[in-house]
Design goal:
Elements lengths: L1 H80 L6 H6 L30 H13 L3 H12 L6 H15 L3 H14 L6 H14 L3 H14 L5 H14 L3
Helix pairs in contact: 3-4, 3-5, 4-5, 5-6, 6-7, 7-8, 7-9, 8-9
Organism: Komagataeibacter swingsii
Keywords: Coiled coil, Signal
Protein name: YbgF trimerisation domain-containing protein
């Protein structure tokens, strides 16, 4: 009877003991849940940060592309806004060997000036003469084709004249960027030749048309430095382009 009573009396103690253990177990469980939740929050935060960084990189890349497109549009608009006379370049810096300062009136038709396809093979001199005649008649496509025909043939001294004719024909078509390169190539082919001053002047003129004033002034400075006493027509044209480029 006493043992039964002692056992009965011991039950509250056990209940309290198991109650404490349950509380401890519950605390551990809640702590584990808290840690798991914190770890999950950290993972989500890192994922969000990675996503934000990726979006920022994409935004920077898109801004760079937009800036490039904007610059291209501005350059094209600047080139189109600078309109010069159809034969302004030829009037200012020569006519590809004709030595004339005036232009022939536009031809009513160009069919009569084009050589037949079945014609006999022409010499470089004949081709250049035909090309310069076409240039004077503002038939720039024919002049360009004749210049390229000579340039694609055997190397000769006449290729400098062909390169200069090519630059003039491109300028007449208002392809100023390609024309500037062609003029500079004509200069490089013979830096001390008779075409060199006119070629540098052509570089400056096309750069003015492209609204690249700083580069145009550099080309004019190079012209005056290397050819301090050019022909009168070149000196006169140099002053005109210096004013257009607002050179200091």
């Amino acid at each position: 009877m006493q043992s039964v009573m002692s056992c009965f009396l011991s039950l509250p103690f056990l209940c309290r003991r198991w109650g404490r253990m349950g509380v401890l177990a519950g605390g551990v469980s809640l702590a584990g849940m808290g840690l798991a939740q914190a770890a999950g929050d950290n993972t989500l935060t890192l994922q969000l940060l990675d996503r934000v960084n990726a979006l920022e990189d994409q935004t920077r890349e898109m801004r760079g592309q937009i800036d490039q497109l904007t610059n291209q549009v501005q350059q094209q608009n600047a080139a189109l806004s600078k309109q010069i006379g159809d034969m302004d370049f030829a009037m200012q810096h020569g006519h590809g060997g004709t030595g004339s300062g005036t232009l022939a009136p536009p031809a009513a038709a160009t069919a009569a000036t084009a050589a037949p396809a079945a014609a006999a093979k022409r010499s470089p001199d004949d081709v250049l003469k035909a090309g310069n005649d076409a240039l004077l008649k503002q038939d720039y496509a024919t002049a360009q084709a004749d210049a390229q025909q000579v340039l694609s043939g055997p190397k000769s001294a006449r290729q400098v004249d062909a390169q200069y004719l090519l630059a003039q024909s491109l300028a007449g078509q208002k392809q100023y960027r390609q024309s500037a390169l062609a003029y500079y190539d004509a200069y490089n082919r013979a830096p001390h030749g008779s075409r060199a001053p006119s070629a540098l002047l052509g570089v400056a003129a096309t750069l003015v048309a492209l609204n690249d004033r700083a580069s145009a002034c550099q080309a004019l400075d190079k012209l005056s430095s290397e050819f301090p006493e050019p022909a009168a027509r070149i000196k006169s044209a140099e002053q005109v382009y210096r004013k257009r480029a607002k050179c200091s």
